From TrEMBL:
Residues 140-317 form the Phosphodiester glycosidase domain. One of its GO terms (molecular function) is hydrolase activity, acting on glycosyl bonds. Keywords: Glycosidase, Hydrolase, Membrane, Transmembrane, Transmembrane helix. It comes from the Bacteria. The lineage of its organism: Bacteria, Bacillati, Bacillota, Clostridia, Eubacteriales. The keyword Membrane applies. The chain crosses the membrane at residues 12-33. This is Phosphodiester glycosidase family protein. Coiled coil: none annotated. The keyword ATP-binding does not apply. InterPro entries: NAGPA.
């Protein structure tokens, strides 16, 4: 009897493991070749904007991807489901709110004085990146989020090379685009947030003090930017905006979790409209997304290995 029970338990475990492995292998075929168009659309956008876009191209042709991206775009829609906002902390010049949308949760930090916002750059530029918590500690900041995009010419994946234009204290500290136009998120000497296309010459002409490169632009001078939900999918997000009174809006959305699937670009757009932003732009997201406050990570990281090493961050300095 004991032997029979022992064999039965082994068989059950083996059957369970077989089904788990089988489901994992079968899942991408169901997602990309199955009849569930909404699931396919969300997956295409999410994977294309991740570090492994080749996964989509292993199952779908460029023509099929293009058709999905264009056919199912809904970035012009406004959500009729209100975003719940709850103040979780307030101190001198800073307010933190918990936000709860249709399929995402996250945090918003409001900073009254825009001149408190600075770009932090890794101390070992082109060698290795740093964690946002390191940026906050090194600069003596109160808070910080991840910044612009980055590229990896050596294949090390350590966040050593910021992409596009990177500006700190009025100086271009890294430029891998020459004088070509690139999408930028910048602050000028008066603390005005500037988003959209810019060249290295524009940085000097417009007296830009702090800047990183990423996108898409969500709101520019009160008008909606050009973006497609289906090209980006839903994922952890980091973004920045500004109100007419100068207040900076930092947003970090949790994603790829049961409690929060992540945000689409239209979700971010709707969120910034809800906060009366006149300019706003998306920053690097995915496993880079993080919000650090008073020395602690207060967002929910998707990456099980903790904070990612990055070339740039955006920090909030003391008053």
């Amino acid at each position: 009897m004991r032997k029979i029970r022992k064999i039965s338990l082994k068989m059950i475990i083996a059957f369970f493991m077989f089904n788990v492995v089988f489901d994992i292998i079968l899942a991408p075929f169901i997602i990309f070749w199955g009849p569930f168009e909404a699931t396919k659309t969300l997956a295409v956008g999410s994977v294309l904007s991740s570090r492994h876009p080749q996964v989509v191209r292993a199952f779908l042709s460029d023509e099929e991807i293009s058709e999905i991206v264009n056919k199912y775009d809904n970035s012009g829609s406004l959500s009729d489901i209100p975003i719940q906002r709850t103040v979780s902390e307030a101190s001198a010049g800073i307010t933190i709110e918990d936000i709860d949308g249709k399929a995402f949760k996250g945090k918003v930090m409001l900073i009254k004085d825009p001149k408190r916002i600075k770009v932090a750059v890794t101390k070992e530029l082109e060698v290795t990146g740093e964690r946002v918590s390191d940026f906050v500690k090194d600069t003596g900041a109160i808070a910080g989020i991840n910044g612009g995009g980055f590229y990896d010419p050596n294949g090390t994946g350590n966040g050593a090379f910021p992409d596009g234009l990177t500006v700190h204290n009025g100086e271009i500290v890294h430029n891998n685009v020459g004088n070509k136009s690139t999408e930028i998120v910048a602050l000028d000497k008066d603390g005005n947030l500037i988003v959209g296309q810019m060249t290295g010459d524009d940085v000097k002409k417009k007296d830009i003090q702090e800047a990183v490169s990423f996108g898409p632009t969500l709101i520019q001078d009160g008008k909606k930017g050009v973006f497609q939900d289906s090209a980006w999918g839903a994922a952890p997000r980091t973004a920045i905006g500004q109100k007419a009174d100068g207040t900076i809006i930092l947003v970090v959305i949790d994603g790829r979790q049961l409690s929060s699937l992540g945000a689409k670009m239209s979700d971010l757009y709707n969120l910034f409209k809800d906060y009366d932003a006149i300019n706003a732009a998306n920053l690097d997201g995915g496993s880079s997304s993080v919000l650090v406050y008073n020395g602690k990570v207060i967002s929910k990281l998707w990456n099980i290995f903790g904070e990612r090493y990055l070339p740039t961050g955006i920090v909030v300095m003391p008053e």
